[in-house]
Design brief:
Elements lengths: L18 H12 L5 H10 L1 H10 L8 H13 L2 H10 L2 E4 L21 E4 L4 H5 L2 E5 L6 H16 L3 E4 L5 H11 L4 E5 L12 H10 L1 E4 L9 H14 L2 E4 L7 H11 L3 E4 L10 H8 L3 E2 L3 H8 L21 H9 L8 H8 L3 H13 L3 E4 L2 E4 L15
Parallel strand pairs: 3-4, 3-7, 4-5, 5-6, 7-8, 8-9
Antiparallel strand pairs: 1-2, 2-6, 10-11
Amino acid sequence: MDADTDAGTGCEGGGEFGGELLDRVFLTRVIEPGDEVGGRWVREFGVREVARRVRGGRALPGVSDRRWSGLRARAGRAEPERDLALARAAGVRFVSPGAGEWPGQLDDLGDARPLGLWVRGRASLRMWALRSVAVVGARACTEYGAHMAVTLACGLAERGWVVVSGGAYGVDGAAHRGALGAGGATVAVLACGVDKPYPRGHTQLIARIAEQGLVVGELPPGEHPTPSRFILRNRVIAALTRGTVVVEAAYRSGSLVTARAAQRLGRHTIGVPGPATSALSAGVHELLRGDAELVTDAAEVVELVGDMGELAPVRRGPVLPRDLLTPAARRVLAAVPGRRAAQADEIARGAQTTPDDTIARLYELRALGFVERHGDGWKLTRQSVTPVRDGRSPG
């Protein structure tokens, strides 16, 4: 069995670390993130046995000779003590499954669970993850997408939610900035070593996130991102959070990978609609045609992912004077022609009521300024002859 309870969390270097922790750090150099075969080895044989056999023991099951040779070559270059020393110098700690700071929801990934996480920042990852939402989307986002990401993240932060994203250009960066700008908490999950910010254009942003929030990754210090690592990183974003909000995404966007991972994990999958003509919203709209929930602001996100009672306000248009009328009075008012005067019996037929009831309602409506007498007839006042939403007058 995997002796998770022996795992440590510090990065103090040298002999102060137990063998379990050193072996986990060693395996982060050998096994790629999300490798379910490697995860199965760890579950079935334990970290220490897997590390021993990769270093020079009998081959583990489920891999070809060629792949086993590749793992052995990686193992020959791994230096876990050096990785921990580099991490300590960069203010980074290594958090193992079973440790006090480990977010238990990552265990939902099964054999694809990270071997551990490198964490940069002062806050507790476990505590922050309990109340977190992922906000992801297109790198080449539109102004609309950037605006929505900033607005959503700002609103979530103001409500005490942690905003999680991938630190990339576009929607990710906008989401991080929105949370930081509101004085809130944000977590960047990177597809590289957390001591080596990527993209380089976000070096200052990621440094600010590390100061005010957390920067997290599976890969040891100095590791570079690759296309596959970006894709596999997304499963951590999905598992870490209560729900994933996709702001903009084309059909082949990596953020859709995050959304689908969230669906598989039973997390909320949420989309922000965009113009029907925008290719950058096509992927979101496809999600919304499925099981994803549509939102337009942070309150609606919190209503989905939050606790019972955290409801978004009821949405309605402006209250008009006629909305305050009784149903009977509204029926009579609706039966008054818009361009001419009409007799009470004609209005009664249109309102499907009696002439006496109609006359009583008409005097009530006159007192309220909706109708006026014209000889023996009744006509709408000027304030009542206003366009309604379809462009026609009420009469």
